[in-house]
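Researcher: For the record, we're logging two predictions in this thread. I'll number them. Prediction 1 follows.
Model: Prediction 1, sequence and structure:
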Amino acid sequence: MFKNKDDLQQNILKFISKTKQTDYETNQLFNELAMSVFHYQFQYNQPYRQYAKLKRCTPMTITRWQELPLIPIKAYKHLNLTTIDPSEAMDVFLSSGTTDPARKSHHYLSSLGIWEQSMVTGFRKNVLPNRDKITIFALFPNQSENPNSSLSRYVSTAISHFGTANSRDFFENNKINYDQLMKALTQASLDDEPILLLGASFSFVHLLNYLHQINQRFELPSQSIVFDTGGFKGKSKTVSMAELYDDLRDTFGVTRQQIVNMYGMTEISSQCYDRNIFDEYHQNPIHYEKQSPHLVKIQISDPETLHPLPNGERGLLAYYDLANWDSCVAILTEDMAIQNKYGFILLGRAKSSEAKGCSIAVDELLNIEETK
């Protein structure tokens, strides 16, 4: 068990850096840390403590990470789910508010060390396992332009840690600077310099529309990567992932194996990635399921009862993230997924009629706050 806040952080950072250990050792240590994080959050995160007590979950009654009470992700819109005074947070990530502009999720971080180490470790393993640096062209605002966006911090961190001197973002004044991007893409092709083209799904949709209008295509240098961070929710135009990736392949002269998708959101601190680049680097058969880092466990839950489901069955994605050490370690998302031995496959956002268990959990949590 942790001795204090600093001790807990150091133990998590050590776990992130541990890559050479057996699955048994990893699972055992994950469980120990998950219990320590829950103990800390039970002490200092009041809304989570009240909810856990409602579920009859306390540090004295549960011993396994699978038993941790799952906070519905929507609760981040209504409550300060944090172990610190919000005014003392080093940073706060806000959701875009596309589904409910009046209410945005607030994710308070008391420090950024674990968030950054989790991001860097996952990126290196799943996106850039075969090199230290690559030229990154970003189609999303950087941290200085969008300071409360977790994705903007992600973009800036990627460029800072993994980008060459030619790396930059091309998002200015709420739009992509197409003129500068065309020049940069052309020069990269002439120099035969591999690039990583990084953007949210809707950024790629807008870019592809522009390129089609001017009848422009590119042949990106070999070993280039197209990195889709996701995020169609609330956008004016919806395109299926298959359509988008077919268009990206045709327009940029890349293969499907050169396209990687990430799963991340405001309320979590660790990301999951398609495993195709990882598989190719390790000379494994290529799969496109998402694999979670070793500091994350996922579980597929029955949408009504929230009970765990076996592999192959469709349900709500539950996300257990040790990097969420100062907010909520166990989160019930609103995303439907299927798990198999290679990872998990996202199926889209749950319909309101599907996620009955999630709705009940939200009501229970909000009723606790109203009756205090």
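Researcher: Logged. Prediction 2.
Model: Prediction 2, sequence and structure:
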Amino acid sequence: MRATRVLAALAAFIVVAGLGLAAFAWRSEIDAVDPPERSAFDPETIARGAQLAAVGNCIACHTVPGGQSFAGGLALPTPFGTIYSTNITPDPETGIGRWSEAAFRRSMREGVDREGRHLYPAFPYDHYTRVTDDDVGALYAYLMTRRPVTAEAPANDLPFPYNIRPLLAGWKLVYLDEGAFRPDPNRSEAWNRGAYLAEGLGHCGSCHTPRNRFGALEAERHWAGGEAEGWTAYPIDETSPAPVPWDPESLAFYLRNGWHAHHGVSRGPMAEVTGNLRALPDEDIEAIAIYTASVMGEPTPERLRQTEELLAEAAGGPGAMIPAADSQAAPAAPAARSGEAIYLAACSPCHDAGRSLPFGGLNLLLSTAVNAPSPQNIVNMVYFGLPAADGQASSVMPGYRGVISEDEMVALLEYLRERFTDRPPWENLGEIVRATMTGEYHVRVLPSDGIERAPENVGAED
């Protein structure tokens, strides 16, 4: 009898708690509207929205490679399961064609869709909440004037309890800091513009900041490094592992062109970022660079001295490792299939040839991937390579998938770490190599320009 009363009380508590959660999480539905005509939007506003969509890298998450741009359906693996991006074309049935600007603004600011459902923070509304009303309106104008695409995204594959959307209201209560961007009056106009773009639509911290076990950004470790789609997103604060310190000029060049002579070529998710940033005016690129360089901080005089020595060494070429073409001397034969032997056969012809970037190989003395605390990115590059961009000259690197064994990969990377850095050996190298080469660790591979292989979604009347 006592057990029955206990169970009844527990059931009552669960019901009351559930009702309380439902009431707390409830958000009203915003009325549907007829899809607006293109003529409802000013052409200059649409053009500005296109640039803002490039800053937000919207196409990257809302496009399946080879599919229609912005039609959604891309699988986004997370520690909590797989989330599929939504269709953000103005299709009235499967997209956002019946969303008013107010509904769109709420999704950006509060992470709630038109029907009142809480959105998962894979959609980075924790950054988009900083965006101004004018810029939200411009982005809305751009998306609502794309060609409608009928495409229903697959259902998210999330286990209990992560599939209970009302729980996201509690997550937001703890982790969502709503509010518009507040300029720093003690900083320059360019710095504030860069901070607004990088911390808002650019959502740099989504990849470059560590997350806690609940998937929220660790605010106290702002830009201290993270993970994105099987790649390490390097720290872009004072702990950056780049052998050569970044400055505003090198950052601006890299963001504009997707490469820099002292830092190499962008790859993985970062290739999408630099590929899309080409749509921005130079002043916006420079503003982002100014802000980012300020977060990284000024290098010490000792660091600058070391950099000068490193650049001088790199400029000297490979030294005696490879004889000149007219030399009669033969290099000493290393042990068969050792790390050095693999490097000399597969890597040295590009990386020691002295051909300048972006079409030559980076001198690995300057490689952030070889110097980084985690070997993940250099594993990815060696194994998958860097596919060429479509229809244009681009950086390219062959992948050695199916050619190199796990033991040979480990030997090669151990050699690179010892030969080109003064850092300690990677402790988890073998484990990461195995997980990557067996497919246990999913890595998204992109062409060097980062642009999705999908037809451009132009305006309905373009």
